[in-house]
Design goal:
The structure holds two protein chains of two kinds. By secondary structure, chain A is an alpha+beta fold. Chain A has six helices and eight strands, in the order αααβββαββαββαβ. In chain A, helix 1 packs across helix 3. Chain A starts with a helix and ends in a 5-residue tail after the last strand. Chain B is α+β, with helices and mostly antiparallel strands. Chain B has 25 helices and 28 strands. Chain B has a six-stranded mixed β-barrel. Chain B has a three-stranded parallel β-sheet with strand order 9-10-11, with no helix packed on it. A three-stranded antiparallel β-sheet of chain B has the order 12-13-17. In chain B, helix 4 runs antiparallel to helix 10 and helix 10 (188-195) packs across helix 11. The chains are: A alpha+beta, B alpha+beta. The interface between A and B is large, with 116 and 166 residues. Strand 4 (107-110) of chain A pairs antiparallel with strand 11 of chain B, so a sheet runs across the interface.
């Protein structure tokens, strides 16, 4: 489903009933027929999946509507005690995080000194990254400091990121790195 | 304060607005007049970075006010629930005694093995301790460690004598008297001089706060990163916590401090820490620079003997069991030696400083965009020193493309061929394309489910680490080297169970990961733990995160996925919506919402209370009857449920035994909130006003101590982190603060690629006042160049009345502000504002000073 800018405005207006629309209603404008039609369009034949807004930390609940596995609409969950169905401009744009021709979908590799990316196979790239991590770990691993303290770590690998990702990602990420002895694990909470 | 809630957390801001409709007063203290200010009852402009002077002024005003001294509520709350009456060691010297520093200040020398800690100085906190009675007899900690004694014996050995106190608050060394002296010069006149806000406005804030604190009313503070991004950020928040305890607002409905965090999962990524300094649930990471040689050494150094934190051995052992599984035994200290130790500060800026010197060889960056953050020029230089770099994101970010599109490459300073880094880019899934949980700013875990499949080679970020781990498990499977044994013993069981379909080929089961975080009976993963009260220190429980224990209390009960709001017309704790740590509690320290006898302070502020007639069932373990009485309420009580308000603790006991029925702050060793902070902060037991590292004025309160004596500066003297003169550099006369817009997100990766958001907010700008614009001949929409010693950027001028001139210390100070969302990628592009910032930071948490520094502005 292609959503034009005009459709989007209409859809988000209905999702935001009580804010922008509420204002218009206050001026005596009735949007009831348009809202009803948009409601129907939005969810016709759609499956609803509960989700959460991935932007700020308020944790607005969303509902994702899909038709045949394709996202057709994302809006605030009216049941949520946080957002009661509303979303801010960013939350209202979650749809475009997904349905967006600019999304990166291929694995890219740049050789040292090269001027361009090359598209590579996912499995090859994973093998190569694993190989580099192992080499760097083995080359730089410190079992004991000069003062004899056992540390079993390497300071030479840096892992960054996590505050935009799930708790489950954070667990897997930190368990992997600490498991192999990498301690320089950081995320946006430091900013 | 420190937040523009209307624009940065707009949906949450509906609630202060609803409170306002119900008669609440809304005050916005901020350098800029924003949309938050526009709807507030009062906007108070202050100079960026002067928050402690302002809050200190409020503290001074409160303790001298008639209301605080006459209404018994305030003494009841502070004398019994906080350490206001506690007596401090006679060797303690305040900043008033030592011209701006506390007793115990020493020099700092970087260790050779990791010289990236950045401290300018450090404190020994020996003199900041309470005056205590004699230590209870028993074996010493050294003896218990040597004999590998039980963890309870270890706690017993750590007991100190009971802290002395004076409930009349008259003792010259009680916290109240020290506090009075410490803030005595933070007068309304001084606030006006330092902050640049009119005295009358300050006094209106102070009176409003007092009028709205007490039995029947509460006041809350909300802050965001404008309180954290300072060389004394932790002390600003500590100062607010002090004020909120002093005014009896903590632990009560409508009170407390709201940390408005910036990312959907930033609370979760702090709890489940992808942060170097901590392991799960705020346990400190084992460290080579602390006495952490063995598990018992670690526990002795990190565990207070009393208060709820004294359960630390149970949490740590259960964590080690989650890491090393069956290989973790009591004999090998549950695998503690395998666990890596940190060498010091491995934080964001410390690592980029080390990277610039070739000490870091490889980096994996997932969902973060450092090429546009924290002194971007120095960061990109550091990235160019790497042997290899992996970027995994939804879009080609500036971090992924710095090597061919970065400003240094574009302007010819750096040649692509000279960059020897091998670089990878892996595309990621978006929120609707996988399962998992986020923890919001209220500590609430909420589950989201997959709705659609991601395109192409997009995989979840968990998939990436899961499949790396499998490869490295294989690679080390046959190693006999001692250093590889830890990794060989790490348990890695995240493949979906039979019957559970992976979302993508080779994908993890997110449910299984959350199960490991919640914890289960060792050897029986189907027997989930119902809460952290079940954790043991003998290895019989396996639990990665004690604070998340209970979110998944049975195999088929993922409480984070609940979506049952409370019906209208009830107090609305919404205990069946998601799950909040700890123990699904929505308001922590909520014992303080009741008075000493366990009754609500007032009917209007009823939240948790003691029901003396509650009939308890017999103890499930012993079968013994439990006397009548229980803590009940709208929320999960934050207290021992059957401990009556009249209970007297056993002074010689451990863990919760010494705490009494009025010790509301159960995480503190003595059960009392800390107004004076004897340990845990490296920069002082009381908040103190210091100037930012770069400031236009001298510190008026402590002329001999301009900035924090222990704050951090990385890459000192290096060309990539040049700093302005510490006071009033004439080349950089203006105060600059950075901020967010509603329509963009952080470094822009999640918004500048979206047509809708890019159209709403298409271009970088600098907001500056009319006076400065006139002085500089800058008209609205002119292009201007903003410079600091690190870099310069170009932006369009937005000339407004919303930001401008402040009179500070008799000087006219112009204030400017810039949003920092831009970079060279995406549909809306612009210069990188963070290129202006410096690698200077807070000594407790290593967060940079991005909210107050100095710059110059010229017409382009």
């Amino acid at each position: 489903m292609q959503v034009s800018r005009r459709d989007f405005l209409r859809l988000t207006a209905s999702a935001g009933a009580g804010t922008a629309v509420g204002g218009l209603v206050g001026l005596g404008v009735t949007l009831a027929p348009a809202t009803a039609r948009a409601q129907e369009l939005r969810i016709k034949d759609a499956k609803t999946t509960p989700s959460i807004c991935p932007f700020c930390s308020v944790g607005c609940a969303t509902l994702i509507h899909t038709v045949n596995g394709k996202i057709v609409n994302i809006e605030g969950d009216p049941r949520s005690p946080h957002n009661e169905g509303t979303l801010c401009p960013k939350g209202a744009a979650i749809y475009q995080l997904h349905m967006n021709p600019n999304r990166a979908t291929k694995v890219l590799h740049r050789k040292p000194g090269a001027g361009d990316w090359e598209v590579v196979e996912l499995e090859w790239a994973m093998d190569r990254v694993a190989e580099l991590i192992k080499k760097t770990r083995d080359d730089t691993f410190i079992e004991k400091l000069p003062n004899g303290k056992l540390v079993n770590m390497t300071p030479a690998i840096f892992a960054l990121g996590g505050a935009t990702l799930d708790n489950e990602f954070n667990h897997v990420c930190q368990k992997f790195w600490r498991g192999i002895g990498v301690v320089a694990i950081e995320n946006q909470a430091r900013i | 304060m420190g937040s523009n809630m209307a624009e940065c957390h707009p949906v949450a801001f509906r609630w202060p607005m609803k409170a306002k409709l119900n008669g609440a007063k809304l005050i916005h203290v901020d350098p800029r007049f924003t949309r938050t200010s526009a709807v507030a009852d009062l906007h108070v402009p202050i100079r960026a970075g002067s928050d402690i002077a302002f809050l200190g002024g409020l503290i001074n005003h409160v303790i001298h006010s008639e209301r605080w001294n006459k209404d018994p509520f305030f003494k009841d709350y502070t004398v019994h629930y906080t350490n206001l009456a506690t007596i401090v060691n006679e060797d303690f010297k305040d900043t008033e005694d030592l011209e701006g520093v506390f007793s115990g200040l020493m020099g700092y020398k970087e260790p050779d093995f990791w010289p990236y800690n950045g401290f300018l100085g450090r404190y020994d906190n020996k003199t900041w301790q309470y005056e205590r009675g004699p230590k209870p007899p028993g074996p010493t900690t050294e003896e218990v460690i040597k004999q590998r004694g039980s963890f309870d014996d270890l706690l017993r050995s750590l007991r100190k004598g009971t802290a002395k106190s004076d409930p009349t608050l008259q003792h010259p060394r009680c916290v109240f008297q020290l506090l009075r002296k410490h803030f005595s010069r933070y007068t309304p006149e001084m606030v006006e001089q330092i902050c640049g806000c009119p005295k009358e406005k300050f006094l209106r804030v102070a009176e409003t706060l007092l009028e709205n604190s007490g039995r029947d009313r509460t006041s809350a503070f909300a802050y965001a990163v404008a309180w954290t991004q300072h060389t004394y950020g932790v002390q600003i928040i500590s100062c607010c916590a002090l004020l909120e305890q002093l005014t009896g607002n903590m632990g009560r409905p409508g009170g407390g401090i709201m940390a408005l965090r910036g990312h959907a999962a930033i609370q979760g990524s702090t709890d489940v820490p992808t942060l170097y300094h901590s392991i799960h649930g705020y346990l400190n990471a084992p460290s080579a620079v602390r006495p952490h040689d063995t598990l018992r050494d670690y526990l002795a150094a990190e565990t207070p003997p009393t208060g709820y934190w004294a359960n630390g051995p149970k949490w740590m052992v259960s964590y080690l069991k989650s890491v090393y599984g069956d290989a973790a035994t009591p004999e090998n200290d549950f695998g503690y030696d395998w666990h890596p130790k940190i060498l010091g500060d491995h934080s964001h800026m410390a690592c980029f400083a080390a990277m610039n010197e070739g000490k870091i060889k490889g980096a994996v960056i997932v969902g973060q965009n450092p090429a546009t953050s924290l002194n971007g020029t120095a960061t990109r230089r550091a990235l160019r020193q790497l042997d290899w770099l992996v970027v995994k994101d939804n879009w080609l970010t500036e971090t992924a493309t710095h090597w061919y599109l970065g400003p240094e490459v574009k302007n010819g300073e750096v040649k692509i061929a000279d960059i020897k880094t091998e670089i990878f880019f892996f595309p990621s899934t978006q929120i609707a394309e996988y399962d998992g949980s986020y923890t919001n700013t209220q500590r609430m875990l909420q589950w989201h489910s997959m709705a659609a499949k991601a395109p192409g080679d997009c995989r979840t970020d968990s998939w990436f680490y899961h499949n790396l781990a499998k490869r490295l498990k294989k690679a080390y499977a046959d190693s006999k080297l001692s250093r590889d044994q830890g990794w060989k013993n790490v348990t890695w069981d995240f493949d979906p169970d039979p019957g559970e379909t992976p979302l993508y080929p080779g994908e993890i089961s997110a449910l299984k990961v959350l199960r490991e975080i919640n914890g289960y009976a060792t050897g029986n993963p189907k027997q989930h733990l119902k809460g952290f009260g079940e954790l043991k220190d003998d290895g019989s429980t396996t639990c990665a995160s004690w604070i998340y224990c209970g979110c998944f209390p049975a195999w088929d009960q993922n409480l984070t996925a609940r979506r049952e709001p409370d019906p209208p017309g009830v107090p609305g704790a919404h205990l069946k919506w998601g799950w909040a740590w700890p123990a699904n509690r929505r308001n922590i320290y909520n014992r303080a919402s009741a008075d000493l006898n366990g009754n609500p302070w007032s009917e209007r502020k009823r939240w948790v209370w003691w029901d003396p007639n509650f009939v308890n069932p017999p103890d499930p373990k012993t079968g013994k009857p439990i006397p009548r009485g229980k803590w009940v309420g709208y929320d999960v009580p934050d207290f021992t449920l059957t401990m009556p308000p009249s209970h007297q603790g056993k002074p010689d006991g451990i863990i919760m035994e010494p705490l009494s029925g009025t010790d509301a702050y159960i995480m503190r060793p003595e059960g009392k909130g800390w107004i004076f902070v004897p340990s845990g902060l490296v920069d002082g037991p009381f908040p103190t006003h210091y100037e930012p590292h770069e400031s236009p004025v001298q510190n008026l309160l402590y002329p001999k101590q301009q900035s924090s004596p222990v704050h951090k500066v990385w890459s000192q003297g290096k060309p990539w982190n040049q700093l302005a003169a510490p006071v009033g550099d004439p080349k950089y006369p203006y105060v600059i603060t950075t901020y967010r817009l509603t329509e963009h997100y952080l470094a822009g990766a999640m918004s500048r690629w979206l047509p809708w958001l890019s159209e709403l907010q298409p271009e970088l700008f600098i907001e500056l006042g009319k006076d400065l614009a006139r002085e500089k001949g800058i008209k609205n929409l002119d292009h201007v160049i903003i410079s600091t010693p690190r870099s310069h950027v170009r932006a369009k001028a937005l000339v407004t009345d919303r930001i401008g001139v402040l009179k500070v210390a008799g000087k006219t100070i112009h204030h400017v502000g810039m949003p920092w969302h831009w970079g060279w990628m995406g549909l809306s592009t612009g210069d990188v504002v963070n290129d202006l910032t410096a690698w200077v930071g807070d000594p407790n948490v290593s967060i940079h000073e991005g909210k107050a520094f100095v710059c110059n502005v010229e017409r382009a």
